[in-house]
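WARN retry 2 of 3 for item q-0093 after timeout on previous attempt; input resubmitted unchanged.
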Amino acid sequence: MKTILSLTSVAVSLTFSSLSFANTPVEFQKIPEIMSQFEHAQLFVKKGITFGRLAHKKELQTPFPTYISDGKGSYILETQNIITDDIVIASMPKPIIDNVYNQWLVPKKSWLKTYGALPQSTEFKPFNRIKSIKAIKITEEMLTLLGSKDGKSATIKVSWNTNGMKVYKDGYLANYEYGIAPQEMAKSYQLVK
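OK item q-0093 returned
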C-alpha cells in the first residue's frame, strides 16, 4: 500500500483507514465526524414493551442468534452471540414471521439502566423502557467513514460480539454503541417531543 503524504483532512484519513480494514468492526465512537452529530441528535424512546428473561442454565455458553426483518416478509440473521450469566435475553412481543422473533442479548447492567429492574425468572415478562436514547440517521457519508464496501451497510464494534454488528443505510446509530435497522426504528421507536 502506497503511503499517502498529502492528506490534510481527518475525514479523508479516516475514510481511507476505514476502507482498508472494512472486514474489521469499526469503533464509531472514535470518529469525530460521527460523534459530533450526537450533540444535536434526536431523542427516541421505545414505543411498546420489551420482553425480558434470564437465561436457562442449559443455554449458558451457547450461541444465540438475533434475527431481524429483511423488509420483504421474511427475516435475516443479524448477529450471533454467546449467552453468559451476565445477560438478559430481550424479545420483541410480536414475531417477525411465524415463530421467529427479534431477540437479542443485553448486559444486565445496561438492562437495569434502561428498564429499571432485572427479570427474576427464565420466563419472558414485559418491561417498559424508562430511558430514552440519542440516535442519528445513518447516511452514505457515515457508511463511508465506517468502511462500507457497498454503500448500504457497515460493521460497527460492539462489546458483546467480537464480529461486530451490521448497521444499514437509513437505519440509526444509538449513543450506547449499537445500531437500529430502518424497519425496527420505524416499528418500535418514537421521537420524544
